[in-house]
From TrEMBL:
This is Aspartic peptidase DDI1-type domain-containing protein. The lineage of its organism: Eukaryota, Sar, Stramenopiles, Oomycota, Peronosporomycetes. It comes from Lagenidium giganteum. Gene3D superfamilies: Acid Proteases. Residues 1-10 have a biased composition (Basic and acidic residues). Residues 1-20 are annotated as: Disordered. InterPro entries: Peptidase_aspartic_dom_sf.
C-alpha cells in the first residue's frame, strides 16, 4: 500500500484474512503531520479513532486536546476489552483519493498497525 507519485490514490487495498474479512487500508495526507498516515477505513466503527503515539508527533495539537476536560469515555476494543480513558478529541483534515474532510477523532492507545481508524 502506498501513494502513486504526486497523488493520493492508493495502489490498492491491504487485506487481512483475520476473521475471514478484508480490511480496507489507505495511506492519507493529514494536515499537521509530516508523513502520510496509515488509515483503516472501518464501516462498522461507531467513532473515529486516532493512535495517541501518532498524535504525539504533533505535540502542540495533542497538548491542546489534552488540556480540554471532556470527562471519561469507555470504548470496547477489538479484543473485546472495555477501556475507560480520559476523553481526548482532535479534529483532523484527512485526504485520500477523492475524500478530503475534517473529521473528529477520539485519541486512544492503539497498536502500531494503524494511525487512524475512520
Amino acid at each position: 500500500m502506498g501513494l502513486h507519485e504526486g497523488d493520493l490514490a492508493p495502489r490498492g487495498r491491504s487485506s487481512s484474512n483475520e476473521g475471514g474479512s478484508d480490511l480496507l487500508v489507505v495511506t492519507a495526507k493529514v494536515a499537521g503531520f509530516g508523513r502520510p498516515l496509515r488509515v483503516l477505513v472501518d464501516l462498522g466503527a461507531s467513532k473515529n479513532y486516532a493512535r495517541r503515539q501518532t498524535m504525539a508527533e504533533n505535540a502542540r495539537l495533542l497538548a491542546q486536546a489534552c488540556a480540554r476536560d471532556r470527562g471519561l469515555i469507555s470504548v470496547r476494543l477489538a479484543t473485546g476489552v472495555v477501556a475507560t480513558v480520559k476523553k481526548v478529541e482532535v479534529d483532523l483534515r484527512v485526504a485520500f483519493v477523492d475524500f478530503d474532510s475534517v473529521e473528529r477523532f477520539t485519541v486512544l492507545d492503539m497498536d502500531e498497525r494503524f494511525d487512524l481508524i475512520l
